[in-house]
Amino acid sequence: MRTPIMAGNWKLNKDPQETAEFAQAITGKLPSDSEVISIIAAPAIDLQTLLDQKVPNLKVASENSYFEDDGAYTGETSPLALHEMGITYGIIGHSERRGYFKETDEDINKKAHALIKNQITPIICCGESLEKREAGKVDEWVSGQVTAALKGISANEVANLVIAYEPIWAIGTGKTATSDQAEEVCKMIRHTIEDLYDEGTANSVHILYGGSVKPANVKDLMSKEDIDGGLVGGASLDPESFLQLVHYQD
Fold it and tell me: Known catalytic residue: 94?
């Protein structure tokens, strides 16, 4: 059985003081790691604050990182430094990074290799635009993104990573793919991994759904066989809302 994952993505929100207050509000209230893996991905300026709070059962993730450990890359974040800080998960390939900052599939593949080398579990994002969905190209597009992101990564490494399916048209819009739509694509992603590797590897990978996930719809989404958790934006900014998400089974 794959342990469910609830990962909050704060994006460009919260300063260190707000981060400390959030951490204090959820301390002692998270489920055990064997029930649900609870993750917060925070802006780089908030990561050390979140780590310093030592919230039991909370995993801390970066929202982005570079594919080199060091060098003349002004403004980038070193995956080696993240590892040394104690970061254990790292989001890469979010549609906002792909769209606003023109990240390519090749960039994301390099970042995946860099995170794995530094013992950080990648959370690799993929997803289609409304135009791709209306053109009937969802499977082709998303499968292509997954295939490109995993290039050169071994089956053992793939088995331990996380893929987050986020239809671009559902991110921050209030629109959510129906649980059946989300399950259809998540199942296709698992089949893509099986085709690239094998059934055991595909069954080990965690596949999350992201796109306006909130307490009101999380149980329905989590009832699906191939949805192993959520990558949550706005609903993860409020401590009570985040706690409702990680305790969705209660």
Answer: yes
